[in-house]
Write a structure and sequence with these properties.
The protein has 279 residues and is of the alpha+beta class. It contains 4 helices and 18 strands. It has a domain of 63 residues: 2,3-Dihydroxybiphenyl 1,2-Dioxygenase, domain 1 (Roll).
């Protein structure tokens, strides 16, 4: 069953400041700005052309502001992307690439896909990596999220064997560096974890939304592989969490949650129709 990573929660201190940064400066598309009361607000924005969105707000996350590190935005022309961000007032570090001696300023001399990078941060210190893949379609595609873990082998076993994610990369050039990339089935956005990569404290990332068409079946599938998944729940009109599937069968309003061995939390979200338009 497909399990598409379609929403990443970013922790921020000032919602209006974050909204101005991501919409006005970074050029993300605003999808939602919902504030039913003074204690809750959620803003959802999507990088242009991306199948995965970000959300930030008030009352939606317990993460410390600045926790999300190294989220990847794939661009077809990194020089143009850097120029656009710089013109909008965002400080960008790069471009740079890696050689045998480490990080090296400038474009990869062969302009190889995946090899040229640049970084920038939002006002709270959440960091982003631009990565150039010239063959990709136009747009800025949120394609990789770093999940901080303490034990790489344990995390790999959990995500690949128990969650059913596909291992795309397990690269360990030396004892100080290792990166594992796994892809949820059917998803255009992947998860990375490892050693020697930028990351927050293990277990500090919360609220990765994985969209499924049948949450009861998805939950049963995960539970059958030994994942401790909550029972489905939804939110009533007054906003309180209520046990069971949404009685109206509404998309986006039925959830189940689970944690990886380090305590990073994930949410299953049911969208029976065309997953990918909104989360």
């Amino acid at each position: 069953m497909d399990m598409k990573l379609e929403l990443v929660v970013l922790p921020v201190t000032d919602v209006d400041r974050a909204k101005a940064f991501y919409i006005d400066q970074a050029g993300f598309d605003l999808l939602v700005d919902h504030k039913p009361n003074e204690n809750f607000r959620v803003v959802q924005a999507t990088p242009p052309g991306s199948g995965c969105s970000i959300a930030f707000g008030k009352g939606i996350s317990e993460m410390a502001p600045g926790t999300m590190q190294g989220t990847y935005l794939v661009v077809p022309d990194i020089e143009r992307a850097i120029a656009e961000l710089t013109e909008r007032g965002i400080a960008v570090d790069g471009p740079f690439h890696f050689t045998e001696t480490g990080q090296t300023p400038g474009l990869d001399p062969h302009r190889a896909d995946y090899a040229t990078l640049a970084t920038f941060s939002d006002p709270d210190g959440n960091t982003w990596l631009l990565q150039e893949i010239q063959g990709r379609e136009s747009g800025w595609l949120l394609e990789v999220v770093i999940v901080p873990v303490a034990d790489v082998d344990r995390a790999k076993a959990f995500y690949s064997e128990q969650c059913g994610f596909e291992v795309q990369t397990d690269h360990q050039p030396n004892d100080d560096f290792r990166v594992v990339q796994v892809n949820p089935p059917g998803s255009t956005c992947s998860v990375i974890f490892g050693k020697g990569i930028p990351q927050a404290a293990p277990g500090s990332v919360h609220g990765l939304h994985f969209v499924v068409t049948d949450i009861v079946a998805a939950r049963a599938e995960l539970a059958g592989r030994g994942v401790d998944v909550s029972e489905p729940y939804h939110f009533a009109k007054a906003g309180e969490r209520t046990s069971g599937v949404d009685p109206q069968g509404a998309d986006y309003n039925t959830f189940a949650d689970f944690k990886d061995p380090d305590g990073n939390t994930c949410l299953l979200q049911q969208v029976k129709g065309n997953a990918g338009e909104q989360s």
